[in-house]
Amino acid sequence: ACGRQAAHTRQSARSLYLTGSSSHHIALRAREWTNGPAEPLTILSGSIVLHLPLQVYEEWERNRDTRLSFAIKEFKNATFVANIPHHMLSLQMAETYQKAVKQAKEARDHLVAEATAKARLNQLDVDKWLFQIFSYATKYQHDDAIFARGKLRAERGNPPGKPGSFGDQYNWEMLLAKLPDDDLYIVSNDGDFASALGKEKGIVYPNILLKREWSENKGGNALYVFDTIADVLNHYDKTLAKPAAAETRDDEMAASAKQTSEASAELSVEKDSQLEAYYGAPLYHSKGVDLTEEEQLEKEAAIDELGKSQSFATTHALVKRLKHYHDAFTTSEVNALFAAALGNEQVNWILKDADVNKFYLTVLATHVGDPDLDVALLDQMIDLLGLGPAADDSKQPENDPGKPSLDDFF
Questions:
Q1: Alpha helices in 162-292 (DSSP H)
Q2: Residues ≥6 apart with Cβ < 8 Å to 403
Q3: Which 3 state secondary structure label does DSSP give 39?
Q4: Is 11 in contact with 94 (CB distance < 8 Å)?
C-alpha cells in the first residue's frame, strides 16, 4: 500500500484511481509537483493508496508510443517563418534573422532525435516518473468474471466509458469488486466519470449513477472525480492533511520534515536500481566520471578497434566492452564512435541489432547537445538511426479516432 504521513498526524488511507489517459498526465505534470503542495512520491508513502488494475497499465503501454510519436511529429512539422518580405531583405537584421531560423531548425531536429532516442530506450522523464508511481500502486490482475460483468455493463449502456468500448466499464467493475469500503478519488480528464453539470475549483461532479453505485456498494462512502493529479493533491493538502493540533511542538515538526527528506533521498537512490530491474538492462547516464589511466587506455583502444572491426562478432564484443564507459565518453570519442558506425560496414550493417542499436541510441541521446560535436556526423547518425520523422507523418493515427494528442495532458 502507498500513502503519506501528514505533517502532524497520520490520516486513514485514501483510495486513488488513475484512468488510462490520466496515467500519461501524471508523469507529464511531475515537474509542476516539485514546486506544488506535495511531492507525489512522498504522498505515496503513508495515507494515499493508488489502485492500479492491469487493464490500466496495459492501456498506457498500448498508447505510449503512438502518443509520443504524434507529439514529436507535430512538433517536428511546426512551421518556421523563413521568408522575409522583399522590402526587409536589405536591412541589417535580415541576415541575422535568417541565420537564427536556420539554427532553430537544426536545434529542433536534434531535439527530436534526442527525444526519439530516449523514447525508444524508455528513459524519458515520463517513463521514469510513471514507473516509480506505478511501483507504489496496489495492483489487480485480470479477472475473467469481472471482465464479463464489465462487458455486460457496456452492453447495457451504463457508465463509465464510450460507445464501442468497455475498458472503463471493466475497470469500474474491478474497483467495485476489489477496493475496500472507503472514499474513492478518481483522476480522469476524459469526462467518462463526470456529470454533465460541470465542476467547481478543480473538483468534478461525479456521474450520478457511479456516485450512487459506489455509495451503495461501499458502505455509504463517497466518490470524488478530479481532472488532474495536481487538483487531487491540492485537495489532499487542504482537506485531508490538516494538523492534528495547533500546539504541535517545533521539534516534532522538524522530525517530520527530516523523515520526509530522508524518504525522498532513499527514493532517489533506489530509482535507478528499480528501473534497471524493470527494464532488464543497466541505465545510461552522463555523469562525467573519472577513469583510471588503465581504464582510459582500455576505452580508447576499444573505440579505435571498433573503427577497424573486421567482423560482426568483433563489433558485438567491442560494444559490450564500450558500454561500461557510457558515462565517460569525451566529445572527440563520440565523434569517433559515430565515424565508426558511418564508415565501417561491420558496424553499419548490424546497427539494427539490439545491443548495437541501444548503444548508439544512448550515445546520441547523451551527447546530442555537446557544443563541440561534429554536426555533420551527428546529422548522419540521426538519419542512420531513423530518428528524424518524415514530413508527412503529422496526421493523427486513423485507428485511434478521438484520442487526444500528448499536448492535451500538459
A1: 167-178, 208-217, 229-235, 250-279
A2: 63, 66, 67, 396, 397
A3: coil
A4: no
Phi, psi of 18 (to 5 degrees): -110, 130
Q: In 222-311, where does DSSP find H-type helix?
A: 229-235, 250-279, 293-308
Q: Quick check: helix, strand or coil at residue 91?
A: coil
Decide: 37 and 237 in contact? Cβ < 8 Å: yes
Full-model pTM: 0.70
Alpha-carbon distance 231 to 97, whole Å?
42
User: Which of 364, 386, 387 has the alpha carbon at shortest distance from 375?
Assistant: 364
* Sign of the torsion formed by the C-alpha atoms of 371, 374, 377 and 379: positive
Q: Which cell goes with 206?
A: 461525479
Per the structure block, which three cell numbers stand in for 190?
476524459
Q: What does DSSP say about strands 223-226 and 184-187: parallel, antiparallel, or unpaired?
A: parallel
Cα 351 from Cα 262, distance rounded (Å): 43
Alpha-carbon dihedral sign for residues 147, 148, 153, 157: positive
Cell 532553430 found at: 104
Question: What is the enclosing helix (H) or strand (E) of 199?
Answer: strand 194-200
In this prediction, residue 395 carries a pLDDT of: 46
CA-based end-to-end distance of the chain:
28
Grid coordinates given for 169: 466499464
A 10 A CB-CB count for 79 gives 5
- Contacts of residue 110, defined as CB under 8 A and 6 or more positions apart, other chains included, come to 368, 369, 378, 382
Nearest to 53 by CA among 178, 238, 145: 178
Are 389 and 72 within 8 A, CB to CB? yes
Amino acid letter, residue 178: K
The amino acid occupying position 133 is: I
Spatial contact of 23 and 187, defined as CB atoms under 8 Å apart: no
- 48-53: strand order across its sheet: 138-140, 48-53, 14-18, 184-187, 223-226, 203-206, 194-200
257-301 confidence digits (pLDDT tens): 444 344 444 444 444 454 444 434 444 444 456 788 999 999 999
Name the pLDDT band for 151 (thresholds 50, 70, 90): very high
Q: Which residues pair with 44 in a beta bridge?
A: none
- Round the CA-based radius of gyration of the chain to a whole number and report it: 26
C-alpha cell at 391: 514530413
Cis ω before 37 (30° cut-off from 0): no
> C-alpha grid cell for residue 268?
532517489
For the four alpha carbons of 52, 53, 56 and 61, in that order, the dihedral sign comes to: positive
